[in-house]
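Cast an eye over my tokenised protein here and flag anything odd:

===
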Amino acid sequence: MTALRPVGLIARREFASRVRGRAFVLSTLAVLVLLGVYAAVVATVASGEDRATVGLVGPATALAGPIARAAPAEGQTVTVTTPPDVAAGEAAVRAGDLDALVSGDAARPRVYVESEPDAALERVVVAATTSVARDAFLAGQGVSPGALDAAVAESGPVIVAAEPPDPQAGARLGLGLAGAFLLFFSIQTYGAMVAQGVVEEKASRVVEIVLSSVRPWQLLLGKVLGLGAVGLLQLVVLGGAGLAVAGAAGVVTAGAGLAPTIVSVVVWYLLGFALYATIYAALGSLVSRQEDTQSVLSPMTVVVLLGFVVGFNLLTSDPRGTGITVLSLLPPFSPLFMPARIALGVAPVGQVVLAFALTIAFTAGVLALGGRIYANSVLRTGARVSLREALGRARS
């Protein structure tokens, strides 16, 4: 057997046992169901919030054209109907067939609604009545409303921007934040799972049997690779479902930097998981009981959580700022925030290369140090192993 063959066997065992496990299946299905419910709610709300049906009766029918012209400016799609009379129109409002009934004088009409008018629809009606009143006044003064509109249309400032606005800025921000959250969730979840698996094997003494055939670094690397593949699989499934939902809602399009974001998320996930999983495995090897696991993981969890919260706020407030730039260059947090800055298009190539190099070097150091701690602690049961003891000379 080559040195890496046991690593592959351990990785496959970890991957198969976790993927077939009830926890992985149920958690993935639960998130997918939540995404489906969210998509249905968004679709239902979106289908109704920008549409309205208005009835016009009597002289108010003159508002049909002005309403049609005013609606797009408010993001509304207004359908105009003409009930036979006011009573029929009011009955239709009470039945929910009409959002509003407009009757009376076109310049100052009576608007009948069930409870209170929708704010956007009210602005549309106000704009329409203002247009009718203005045109009537201008006509009385002998001024052509059309000529005035043409003169006004030719006026106004010409905006010249140093940097043209990015029409995909909102989509890029959403992709960046979603990527940061998914990476944080996956790394934390499966990193902690590595630690729990180490403690389980120590408590059951299974690790003693396994280490009679393989070396500690092979077992550690196999566990990290196997659980990393599980996390990556779930990341791909949930990320793909999320992108499908966002695409169906029109939030994300194929031209919003999608491909570079996906590639950077995957690459930085692999780096980040190798980094954090090694730390968690080393910390898990210090204890022999599951109830003690949280005590050794808490300091690391708190540091990562605080860094994530601070970085998330900096990313939303000022993605080009010094704070998030520095944070994205620091190896423990680069896997979380550099993909987000890449998605936003605010990370220069030099910073990306520097962050990648620093993370590679830092991860290599963590692997060496974590492997030493793991090798010195994984066979020691009973009392918690101190870091000083764990960092001593490896036992043969």
Remarks:
- The chain is about 70% helix and 5% strand.
- The longest helix spans residues 169-204.
- The two ends are 21 Å apart (CA to CA).
